[in-house]
Amino acid sequence: MTVYAIAQLKMTDRAAYDRYQARFFDVFRKYNGRLLAADEQPRVLEGEWPFDKLVMMSFPDEAAFLAFSNSPDYEDISRDRKAGAHATVLLVRGFAPTG
Hints:
99 residues, alpha+beta, 4-stranded antiparallel beta sheet, 3 helices, 4 strands, flat
């Protein structure tokens, strides 16, 4: 079942985050993920949103996401992401209608 990874980021060190971002696709493309959105100015329609960026990705299944997020390559670049931004990351199962 398709899963979606949603990251909400609050920048703390833009230079560190930019280093992460520059290396992200070299790692990401190895794991069958699709980048669906990366927006630094999403339009808030309701409530409050105290973040600076939203990123949404899809993966064929949870195993593919975990292979990506736990890979040595991603762990290496994620040091800069963690230094550059506080993140809330959600993993959401896709909807599969029944009946």
